[in-house]
Specification:
Length: about 375
């Protein structure tokens, strides 16, 4: 198969639809794995103590309490009662809830999905979370400290809008990630971020916690090296012409822009459904430089093994096979599915029809079984990825 004509990088709209649809399907329809009858527990917004202090106080009050708790109402109720009593000792009448992991908390298992092998998915650790419903705990005044004045301005602009909003462990974790991203985009790749929680004070019917954000920026990094390897389909081609960044430029963000997604899209159009595009960075802290690299790991070429068309008359089915332009035994192209939507719109024999599709991947055989299920417009069309 010749690939020279495809050297112009193109972004496949079908790939975007394919990934979005597959993610939605798995998030809605995948069965969540069962979790243990005993789980770790954590605290969201008990700002009068840190987690270690609160855990120690609870263990003194509840015989046999360890670092895990039974996921049932009596066990959780004992912790809620103990937390209520601790709050009462501070003169606060509290309403406390406990939450176990829900099915929505489990992330889609993208590792087994076609074309999703290089997607990074955070590991989910199920935890019982105890939180204070009433009185309300909010974020008070945010102060930013850093030796880099440009970081102070940027971080303040990002976090000042959170003042007065509900405060909890999730907010701190998310805010820290936001601050780290700001620092990295400005080239501070060795940054360290610390959130210091100040004593809680009462504000009308709520309690506010002021926070000091300390950002140790370190040196501003510059680009020391750039390398882009487009893999076998781009062997001998200079991809650096598509990279705007140059050696010596300030670091920050990905220097490769949309090249990674475009490479993935092109490889998938050529049948490499499991292609991975890896972008990596290597820091030289002594020189305050960073080496960026992009590498394509193509994987096998997938072929269409079977094509099933449902809920059409024989003459309509034959016409769909012609319009699809992809036969069993040929390289699988997701763009053919996107093109089919446009083709049937102009086909009198299929007027008023739409379809859903279900590509099932056999990774061991590098083969895909494709099902197209047709319905009249306004009916139920589905997208399923297995």
């Amino acid at each position: 198969m010749r690939h020279s004509a495809g050297y112009r990088l193109i972004l496949s709209a079908a790939l975007v639809a394919f990934i979005c649809a597959s993610s939605a399907t798995h998030a809605q329809g995948a069965k969540a794995p069962a979790y243990s009858a005993h789980l770790p527990y954590s605290f969201s917004n008990f700002v009068w103590w840190n987690d270690d202090e609160l855990r120690a106080l609870l263990k003194k009050r509840i015989p046999g309490l360890g670092d895990e708790i039974a996921t049932n109402n009596p066990a959780e109720g004992r912790v809620r009662d103990a937390l209520t009593a601790l709050m009462k000792e501070k003169g606060i009448v509290a309403e406390i809830q406990s939450e176990e992991p829900s099915t929505s908390a489990f992330r889609p298992l993208t590792a087994n999905m076609v074309g999703m092998g290089d997607m990074e998915v955070p590991t989910f650790h199920p935890t019982v979370v105890f939180s204070l419903l009433r009185p309300k705990v909010v974020l008070g005044h945010v102060t930013v400290q850093s030796e880099a004045s440009d970081l102070i301005e940027a971080v303040e602009a990002e976090l000042k809008g959170d003042e007065g909003k509900a405060f909890g462990a999730g907010m701190v974790s998310f805010s820290q990630t936001r601050v780290e991203e700001i620092a990295k985009k400005k080239g501070y790749l060795g940054e360290q971020v610390l959130f210091r929680r100040m004593p809680t004070h009462k504000v009308e019917d709520s309690y506010a916690t002021d926070v000091t954000v300390v950002v140790s920026a370190g040196p501003r990094y510059r680009i020391g090296a750039l390398h882009a390897d487009g893999g076998p389909l781009f062997e001998g081609k200079d991809l650096m012409q598509f990279v705007r960044a140059r050696i010596g430029d300030a670091a920050g963000g990905s220097p490769f822009g949309t090249i990674g997604p475009q490479l993935r899209a092109y490889y998938q159009q050529c049948g490499f459904a499991d292609v991975m595009v890896k972008a990596e960075q290597t820091l030289n802290s002594k020189e305050a430089t960073v080496a960026y690299s992009l590498k394509v790991i193509p994987g096998p070429i997938y072929h269409l093994r079977s094509l099933t068309i449902e809920k059409l008359k024989p003459d309509q089915e034959n016409r769909v096979r012609e319009l699809l332009g992809m036969k069993p035994g040929e390289i699988f192209r997701d763009q053919a599915i996107t093109d089919l939507y446009h083709e049937i719109a102009a086909e009198p024999l299929l007027k008023g029809y739409t379809f859903g599709f279900s590509p099932k991947a056999d990774k061991a055989a590098a083969a895909i079984d494709l099902s197209l299920t047709f319905s009249k417009e306004g009916g139920n069309a589905t997208v399923t990825v297995q």
